C-alpha cells in the first residue's frame, strides 16, 4: 500500500496567520493517465470529511481562495492563509492513484 | 442538492454480520461510482471499496483489508448503496461513510453510521 505521511501531526495557529501542511507519499502519485490523484480534506469536529482540494491544486466548489494546494510526484503541500475559526479541525490527504486508495494520518489545526 | 444518508449501524458480536445502507438523492445515481469508507474513532479514514457506475457495469473494487468479508452492492431502482459485512472483528469498529466518487475523489460524504463490534 502507498504510505501517506503528513507533517506536522499538530499545528498550532493564530487566527489570521498562515500555515502549511506537508503530505509525502511512499511512491509517485502520477497515474498512468498522466494525472496526479492527490486530494485534501478537512474534518471538523463531529462532521464527515469535506473536500477542499482535488488533483493537487484544484479548489472544490465553495472553497475560499485562502486554501491552495501544490506539489508533484511524492511531495505535496496544502497552504492556508488568513486562518479563520472555521478552518480548525483535522486535515487529511488522500491518494487515489494506486489501489488501495490511502489517506494520510491527519494534521490537527488548532488555536495557539 | 446531493444527499447521502447511511443507516443500519449498531452493536454486533464478534463473528456476526451487519448490512449498512446508504440512501442517495439529488443526483443521477447510476452515473456515479459509490464508495464505502470507515474511520475508527480518533484515526484516519480507510477506503473500503467502490462499486462502479452503469457505464462500467457496476463492478466492484475492494481494499484487500476487507476483501472476501465485505461486499458492496447497489439497488439502482431505489438509489440505495449497501455494505454487507461478515465475520466482523473488534477492529471493524468504526464510523462508516458512504461517499460519491467524482473523477477519483470523494466529493460528497454521508454523515456516517457507527458500528461497534463487541461481546
List keywords for this structure.
heterodimer, A: 112 residues, mainly beta, 7-stranded mixed sheet, 4-stranded antiparallel sheet, globular, B: 119 residues, 11 strands
Description:
The complex is a heterodimer of chains A (112) and B (119). Chain A is 0% helix and 48% strand. Chain A has strands at 4-7, 10-13, 19-25, 38-43, 50-54, 58-59, 67-72, 75-80, 89-95, 102-103, 107-111. In chain A, strands 2, 4, 5, 6, 9, 10 and 11 form a seven-stranded mixed beta sheet that branches. A four-stranded antiparallel beta sheet of chain A has the order 1-3-8-7, with no helix packed on it. The mean pLDDT of chain B is 98. Chain B has strands at residues 3-7, 10-12, 18-25, 34-39, 46-51, 60-62, 70-75, 80-85, 94-102, 105-109, 113-117. In chain B, strands 2, 4, 5, 6, 9, 10 and 11 form a seven-stranded mixed beta sheet that branches. In chain B, strands 1-3-8-7 form a four-stranded antiparallel beta sheet, with no helix packed on it. Chain B has no helices and eleven strands. Helix content of chain B is 0%, strand content 52%. With 119 residues, chain B is an all-beta fold. In chain B, a hairpin with an 8-residue loop joins strand 5 (46-51) and strand 6. Classes of the chains: A mainly beta (112), B mainly beta (119). The interface between A and B is medium-sized, with 24 and 20 residues.
